[in-house]
């Protein structure tokens, strides 16, 4: 898997969220560089867990939709099936 990359806008938003969290929850000022460093650490060390969870959730949604489609196809085929004696 390639590393997780964020656009500059996404990075700015994430850094602001990290800085806001540190200010509100920990009563600490966190500079831009430190917040970016922390974001980089989280991306490298735990980002794959969130990414994989997203893939798992997407797979579950797709599987449910495909099951529904499969049931509809089966029903449609049954409707046009010719009777045999």
Key descriptive features of the protein:
single chain, 85 residues, mainly alpha, 0% strand, rod-shaped
How much helical structure, as a percent, in the residues?
over 70%
Order of helices and strands: HHH
Number of H/I helices? 3
Structural class: mainly alpha
Q: Which regions are unreliable across 5 or more consecutive residues at pLDDT < 50?
A: none
Report the β-strand fraction as a percent range. under 5%
How many strands, which pairing sense, and closed or not: the largest β-sheet? none
What is the overall pLDDT average?
Answer: 94
Total E-strand runs: 0
Shape: rod-shaped
Instruction: Give the termini separation.
Output: 57 Å
Task: Summarize the structure in short.
This protein has 85 residues and is mostly helical. It has helices at 8-25, 32-45, 47-80.
């Amino acid at each position: 898997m390639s590393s997780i990359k964020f656009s500059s806008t996404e990075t700015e938003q994430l850094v602001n969220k990290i800085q806001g969290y540190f200010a509100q929850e920990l009563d600490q000022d966190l500079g831009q560089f430190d917040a970016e460093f922390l974001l980089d650490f989280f991306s490298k060390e735990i980002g794959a867990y969130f990414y994989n969870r997203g893939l798992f959730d997407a797979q579950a949604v797709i599987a449910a939709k495909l099951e529904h489609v499969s049931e509809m196809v089966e029903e449609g085929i049954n409707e046009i099936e010719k009777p045999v004696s």
